[in-house]
């Protein structure tokens, strides 16, 4: 104000001949109640009275008009104060008003054109076009910090993008804005018009500093000060070769090269064998034939044979003991299982998504905990997305001119009344919690409480104060409507923080809770910023969240439950409503789990029935009930389930919580592993012939000595692999790996003890011709011929010889290597993330909400840039690295976030951040009426209080106009944070920033603070992952430039952080599992390194092919699929290790015969034990209502079983026939010695 008055003084000296056109107040304005006309006066200027000095500060100047200071006060101290962030803009704008109201030479550029007695009722104001353009250019980029909207929106009567120099000034002087008491008609010209010289005072560009030392405007308030607009880096071009995907081309070429080499090698070997056999020298002995080998075994072979023999003796002795003392073993096993399962009493099931997906030590989790502890947890929400089946659109024609404005059907007044009825019904809901009534007011976010206990409701209806009467408020006569809900809506969407819509209605836009309702949060389905075209209304009820307060959290949950119940029963033919509450997803997951229990039960029942029936080998119809193994099969299943319960119980003793993934997946896994071992033991016993002088316990002990090393190999490999998987940072994967590893090992221990004892009892029953289940009934003795099972005969006589034919083997290799090449080509194309829609049942109401969320919403989640404790805000240096106004660093926090918002399509930062610091600086300025205190007590005095003892916080001096520093900064900051916005001061910080600043005890300093903005709309998992990555990059840049820790926080970061490293975690987990399998296999196969390489290579092929299936079947990579991949690694061991071990101990004369024999004897057990068992159970999962079951369990489990079976039973035998390990000479020698004098074939004993 000093400057505009200084320019007036200069003009007084230059134009003494000029005179005033008005002075003083006269009659009441007829058109704007509460305003007064000015009195006609054509005399010279008169001195300024003392009552105007607090505003203009210069008492000695001759000025024309002091009563009009009220006009300045309203326009200068409330609205243009938003422009004070930019000194040049503020100076130019004040020049416009000061020259109008108090210039001593008004008659030079003002013409009073209409009078009513002594009242001036209309005036023409000649304004230079150059001045108007310069003022507009200096102000057009200024932002209102608390509302993230251009300040022009508050003063132009329309969206800032539609403002220009002339219509902005015309609107400010228009009587219809509700503030101007009479028409002031601006006439724009740079040359004299009708004898008047337009006001064309000096202006400043926003890039210039002022004479009083004020600096140029900041970048966010002056685009010209920013330099070139930031340009996002170009997207990396796709990796291509000759215009095609590079990986596809590379793998295709690699596959062709492999085929040429492989086919050449096969043909060369065939020709070589043909020539050798036809030669006169006869066949050359195969070096792989053990009968042609001498016994000069290597040291490693000897060590392997001794280790193998040690295991055989150990397990044989143990098996014999279990059969001889079944009661001791079974009772001991039962006691241990019961004791271990007792931990289930302490079982905890984690359903909290944060606990499931985010490690307590992860960056996102630590940042969340920091945010929650300093600012309180992020609020809960209940949200409605409302559309209408009506397609009617209508035009609104503004009475005071302008083009017609189309409105969508959802903004029809009748529809709005119906939506308001719904909103009020929801506000009136009453829930019950522990006998107490709970209403929305008990739990809602009320930022101005206790002064204003209205709940925050982000709704278009809050533009109308949630009132039917305000919605119906109309100004007009019997012929025309001058203003109604259309005009109020159009104003509020451009100035949501306004306390007066400046139409004839003069209704506030600010919500009843004391904060603005941004249109991008309350509407959807519009184009650009044409909110009148909206096709959806969004109503959001923020609800307080609570840390460690179960009572208050329980009340919130109870109200949300009542809200969901109400919305499910709500019917309105004109409204289509999608809704969601904070508890909805967890509720639906629980419901989904309960509804899938029947599916899971049926799936396991089918597997149980199959196991019970398939274990028996029926020799004749007469002996069906004797030869069946139903009771033994049931016992085997119970052992599997006991191992699961024991694992759960043991970890529950240690307080490790369960997850739904553990409960749903581990029984499937352990059943696969356990049943396979059961089939191997039982079927090996069924094929075995008891040796002369051998008793039952010796026979079963010998069989266990043969098969237990193989079982131990697979089980221990899986256990180690799973325990290494527990190194993962993802809680879901870590928990699964721990429980699975222990369950598999306990299952192995129970099978070689309890199950072996039960097998001995069942064998005695069968030998005694007693019926299965009803063992007290005995059949008469009869001669029965022992035969092999159909499946064993099929594998031995048909299947194994066929796939190992000379012409079939190359085809199999070519097909499987082709599958591998394809999978490698697409492994980098598997999508990362988890579509949240998949976690919901098919019939969930939340699916409609997700669909509408994606279709209609335009703004994403809030994102907070948190400045950690320790920054000195009381120093200019500390302020400059954060703030966004005049004098702030060009790379400050606010400036960097603002720059990021300019390329929001890349950075996903949608808006300039709301800055408490910049708003505080504006609030505390002496030119503002906001910061006052009682000079008697020092207590804060709100701007709305009229009391002579209230004085400005800071003096109107050059130092007083500077930012507060030192003690001054902390003296007034608590006042700012407690000040409620009002008509006199719209910048009170209570509503917007009460939780944004964490003050030290007794207000001695500022701790952690945040600066909030919004993400752009995020629809799919890749969008969320990109948003997290961009926000962290931005926060890291801010941290470097400020030399102080700043991090970005949004509510979804804890869920999506895992995807930043999921590819690395997957490679690490699967790599560690494969490495452990390799090491364990090497040791337990008797240090046969090449056998371990083949097992590991085959399992790696299965895993790579799993990625190929995931790409084909649209299965994304996430924690759930990673759990399944870790599990597939374990199950693959079952498919491969038994075959390889059978091959390694075979003494047939060449690799093909050894592979055929291994496949015939072990293949049938693997096929019946895993493949058939799982296949029926998996197919039932396809009937599940749960999409996550269908995608991640049915599809992935089916792929695991099919790929494992095909690789283990087709590809692996062929691979062994080509490059299998040579026979271990020491093992052959030991085997021949062991069976010397018998007619047994060693492998049949296996």
From TrEMBL:
Subcellular location field: Endomembrane system
Catalysed conversion reaction: cholesterol(in) = cholesterol(out)
Keywords: Cholesterol metabolism, Disulfide bond, Glycoprotein, Lipid metabolism, Lipid transport, Membrane, Signal, Steroid metabolism, Sterol metabolism, Transmembrane, Transmembrane helix, Transport
Signal peptide: 1-24
GO molecular function: cholesterol binding; lipid transporter activity
Family the entry assigns: Belongs to the patched family.
Name of the molecule in the record: Niemann-Pick disease, type C1
Higher taxonomy: Eukaryota, Metazoa, Chordata, Craniata, Vertebrata
The encoding gene: NPC1
